[in-house]
Every structure is written in structure tokens, then in C-alpha cells.
Design goal:
The structure is a single chain. This protein is α+β, with helices and mostly antiparallel strands and 163 residues long. The chain has helices at 2-14, 31-41, 55-63, 68-77, 101-107, 135-146, 155-161; strands spanning 45-50, 79-84, 90-92, 98-100, 115-119, 125-130. Helix content is 42%, strand content 18%. Helix 4 (68-77) packs parallel to helix 6 (135-146).
Length: 163
């Protein structure tokens, strides 16, 4: 009986909760902290919805987010937020409401990952791009957001006209 209890205890101590991870080396924040910082710094948010076991997230992390130019661009001009769309991590919205990251994923319709959102600090969604994205894709989205093209064009119109 002692061995069974000891084995059970060891299993409990060594088991870990599986969380999805953002790409390494980026200063991603939890959603609630990111919104506060974006408002304080008046910067748009770049929100990455991923989830544990997402093969496409891994591919984007390994092939796209390793680019130093992209890293520099994103970290300079955006507040980076990572949300595990299936996690039970709790966060507090600016309204004071407490929800989980999974709840946030449902609200933002992050039913497939990866999903990338560009958002103003007030919560206005500017761009929503699902799936695997290349460095070039993100450079186009950055121009669309930072140059203000979203005010007069849809993303599709902008991309059709882009050189």
C-alpha cells in the first residue's frame, strides 16, 4: 500500500499541465497585461491565438517567427499577446470580468489555430488572419495596419493592390 501511495504521489508531482508556448525569444504577454500596456503605450496589439499540439503553430514558430526582421518589427511596433485558445489560465479583462483564455478564444472566434489578430488598444479589430503565415505575409499586414490602410480598404483590397 505504501508503494502505491508513493507511486501515486510521484505521478502527481511529476505530471504537468500542458500549455502551448509562443515562439521563443518574443516578449509575448498574457492578454490582460497586453491590453493594459497597449493602452498605456498607445500601440496596437498583435495577438497570437495558439494551442497545445497545434502543428501549424509549431510550423509558423519554426519557419516564420525565427526571422530577425520580423521579430524586430513586431517587438518595436506592437504589444505582443499570446493566448492559448484552449487553456484554463484565468485572466481579468479591462472591464473587470474574469474569464479563461479558452473563453477568450471563443469570444474572438479562435476555433482554428494559429489565428493572428491586429487590434487597436480600444479593442477594435483591424486584421484577422488564420493559418500558416510567412514573413512576407506579416510584412504586408504590418503595412496595412501601421500605414492606416485599414481606414479606407479591406485587407483583400490592400493585398490585391500591393506590389
Amino acid at each position: 500500500m505504501y508503494r502505491f501511495r508513493l507511486l501515486t504521489l510521484l505521478c502527481l508531482l511529476t505530471s504537468t499541465q500542458a500549455w502551448a508556448d509562443p515562439p521563443p525569444g518574443y516578449p509575448f504577454l498574457p492578454f490582460d497585461e497586453g491590453v493594459v500596456r497597449a493602452r498605456k503605450e498607445n500601440k496596437p496589439l498583435f495577438i497570437y491565438f495558439g494551442r497545445f499540439g497545434c502543428a501549424w503553430c509549431d510550423e509558423v514558430n519554426k519557419k516564420t517567427f525565427v526571422d530577425p526582421q520580423l521579430k524586430s518589427l513586431l517587438t518595436r511596433h506592437y504589444v505582443l499577446v499570446y493566448v492559448d485558445a484552449e487553456s484554463g489560465k484565468r485572466l481579468r479583462l479591462p472591464s473587470g470580468e474574469r474569464i479563461t483564455e479558452a473563453d477568450l478564444g471563443v469570444r474572438w472566434r479562435a476555433f482554428a489555430t494559429p489565428l493572428f489578430l491586429y487590434m487597436l488598444p480600444d479593442g477594435t479589430e483591424l486584421v484577422r488572419v488564420p493559418g500558416i503565415q510567412t514573413v512576407e505575409d506579416f510584412l504586408h499586414y504590418d503595412r496595412y495596419v501601421r500605414e492606416g490602410h485599414y481606414r479606407s480598404q479591406t485587407l483583400t483590397e490592400f493585398l490585391r493592390a500591393a506590389p
